[in-house]
């Protein structure tokens, strides 16, 4: 089995509706995103997935979130948790890269706090 991973970053603001604590206030993060693909079949070049294609798709998805108030995106139901952001990025990548063996997306709000989505 082979696994490949690419990374991208974006900065955005959000607040967590219905949460009681400091994260209910408007604040921002410099997000780090890691996307993983996993499979056993390599193409004729010996690759599971071209890093360039994978990175470009991830960057395009992250550019759509960069320097935004994430609560304004209806996909997050006005509460853009790291978990919901990870699912959104996974689904967006899957739509851009049909047939790609996507495994998971990790979204880091900080170096020590991360959420992972895998179907």
**DSSP summary, beta strand count:** 4
**Mean pLDDT, rounded to whole units?**
96
Q: Which strands sit side by side, in order, in the main sheet?
A: 1-2-3-4
Binned strand content: 25-35%
First and last CA, distance:
18 Å
CATH-level-4 superfamily name of the domain at 8-47 and 80-119? 6-pyruvoyl tetrahydropterin synthase/QueD
Which overall shape is indicated by the principal axes computed on the Cα atoms? elongated
The CATH architecture of the domain at 8-47 and 80-119 comes to 2-Layer Sandwich
Count of helical stretches: 2
The CATH class of the domain at 8-47 and 80-119 is: Alpha Beta
**H-E string:** EEHHEE
Write the layout of secondary structure elements.
Layout lengths: L1 E13 L12 E13 L11 H13 L18 H15 L5 E9 L2 E5 L2
Antiparallel strand pairs: 1-2, 2-3, 3-4
Helix pairs in contact: 1-2
Account of the 3D structure:
The protein is 24% helix and 34% strand. The radius of gyration is 15 Å and the shape is elongated. With 119 residues, it is an alpha+beta fold. It has a domain at 8-47 and 80-119: 6-pyruvoyl tetrahydropterin synthase/QueD (Tetrahydropterin Synthase, Chain A, 2-Layer Sandwich), CATH 3.30.479.10. A four-stranded antiparallel β-sheet has the order 1-2-3-4, with helices on one face. β3 (102-110) and β4 form a beta hairpin. The protein has helices spanning 51-63, 82-96, and strands spanning 2-14, 27-39, 102-110, 113-117. It is built from two helices and four strands, in the order ββααββ.
């Amino acid at each position: 089995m082979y696994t490949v991973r690419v990374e991208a970053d974006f900065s955005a603001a959000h607040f967590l509706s219905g949460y009681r604590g400091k994260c209910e206030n408007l604040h921002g993060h410099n997000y780090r995103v890691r996307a993983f693909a996993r499979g056993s079949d390599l193409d004729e070049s010996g690759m599971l997935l071209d890093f360039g294609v994978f990175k470009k798709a991830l960057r395009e998805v992250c550019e759509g979130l960069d320097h935004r108030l994430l609560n304004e995106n209806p996909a997050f139901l006005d509460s853009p948790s790291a978990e919901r952001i990870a699912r959104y990025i996974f689904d967006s990548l899957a739509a851009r890269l049909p047939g790609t063996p996507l495994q998971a997306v990790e979204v880091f709000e900080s170096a020590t706090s991360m959420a992972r989505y895998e179907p």
